[in-house]
Structure formats: structure tokens, C-alpha cells
Write a structure and sequence with these properties.
globular, alpha/beta, single chain
């Protein structure tokens, strides 16, 4: 083999190694039971279905924890959970934050004046990571209070989500120059996509994953 062919072979091998060593794009899905996949098989959660849509170049991680709040003074603050520290430790390239549904409970919404500051602090914490991730804030899906198997005792309030939580999320989105995914509008009129008025069924999780995938 002459020197020119040998050089081309080495270059080809080097490029092949670089190609195969390309790191995957890491996605952190931060949220409550809707992100976790409450009532679903692990393969049916929206992060798992998002992984299927994004393909092998992405690595989607589910950091959902049921009943958790964005509010730091809420009954179960997300920031105090291992999932939050794990999401930060991942040093993700993309962060999808879907919190706010449980904040609408009366016991939590009495701290509504802290919501913007708490969400801003979370966004800042992710922005400070070495990866400087793209951050997406999600508007919560609707609450279908008339749906079968709805649990009024949970205290989740759609009116508070619409008139309180979502406007505050939009305020932070604009203030912090991050992206917004409106999950409320696509779900309106689709009660069949949730099994208890709050949590998506398998089709609902697929629908949710597709809405996020579009962004």
C-alpha cells in the first residue's frame, strides 16, 4: 500500500471513530406525576414516547415525581427531591419543565406570590449549568373535573391553573428568554386522553409527547 492510500485509510478510520463517538443530546424531563407516568406502564410515559420520536441521537431522562409542586413552600416541593438534583447532575442539553398542576391546590396556592420567584430560580439554576441547556416551560394540560374517576379531594383547580399558574409561567418565560410549550390548548376538548380528569392515559401521553416533539 502506497503512502497516499495509507493516509486516506487512516483519515477514514479517524472520521469513523469521531462519528461513532458523537455524544447524544441529553434531555431532562422535569415534572410531576404527568411526567412520571402515573397509572401507566413505564413504556407509556411521555418521556419514553418522546425518546422514540427523537431517535438514537437523543437520550431522554424521566425526572418526574408524583404530587410535587414548583412552589418551594408547597406541601411537596420538587426542588427538595432527588429527581431535581439528578436532573442538574445530568448536565442536560435540553430541559423540559412541566410543573404547576399541584400548585393549584388550596394548601399550595396560598403561596402564589412566590411562584414567579421560585420558577425563575429553577430556570436560573439550569441556565448556570456548564451545558447551558435550552429550556422549555410547559403550560399544564387542562383539568377535566367532570370526567369519570375524577378526584375532587385532591384539590387540583383548573380555574387557578388558567388564571394563576399559566400567566405566571408565561411571565417567567418572557423574563428569562426561554421557550414555551402550550400543552393546554391542544388538550382542550379531549377528555378521552385522560383517565381521571388529570392524568393522561397511554394515548394522552403519546399525544403530549408529540406536542413537545413538535417544538
Amino acid at each position: 500500500m502506497n503512502r497516499t492510500k495509507h493516509s486516506f485509510l487512516l483519515l477514514f478510520l479517524l472520521l469513523s471513530v469521531v462519528t461513532f463517538a458523537q455524544p447524544k443530546i441529553k434531555v431532562a424531563c422535569v415534572g410531576n406525576s404527568i411526567t412520571f407516568g402515573y397509572g401507566l406502564k413505564p413504556t407509556e410515559s411521555y418521556p419514553t414516547q418522546l425518546q422514540a420520536l427523537l431517535g438514537d441521537k437523543y437520550e431522554v431522562h424521566n425526572y418526574g415525581n408524583s404530587a410535587r409542586t414548583l412552589l418551594s413552600k408547597g406541601n411537596l416541593p420538587y426542588i427538595k427531591e432527588k429527581e431535581y438534583s439528578d436532573a442538574l447532575a445530568l448536565n442536560p442539553d435540553i430541559v423540559i419543565i412541566k410543573l404547576g398542576t399541584n400548585d393549584s391546590k388550596p394548601m399550595n396556592w396560598k403561596y402564589q406570590s412566590d411562584f414567579i420567584a421560585d420558577l425563575t430560580a429553577m430556570v436560573k439554576r439550569f441556565k448556570q449549568l456548564p451545558s447551558h441547556p435550552k429550556i422549555y416551560l410547559c403550560c399544564p394540560i387542562p383539568v377535566f373535573a367532570r370526567a369519570p374517576h375524577f378526584h375532587p379531594e385532591w384539590g387540583i383547580n383548573d380555574s387557578i391553573i388558567v388564571n394563576g399558574v399559566i400567566p405566571k409561567i408565561k411571565t417567567v418565560q418572557k423574563k428569562m428568554h426561554v421557550r414555551l410549550i402550550d400543552l393546554r390548548k391542544p388538550f382542550l376538548g379531549h377528555e378521552e386522553l385522560v383517565f381521571d380528569g388529570i392524568h393522561p392515559n397511554a394515548d394522552g401521553a403519546k399525544f403530549l409527547a408529540n406536542e413537545i416533539y413538535k417544538q
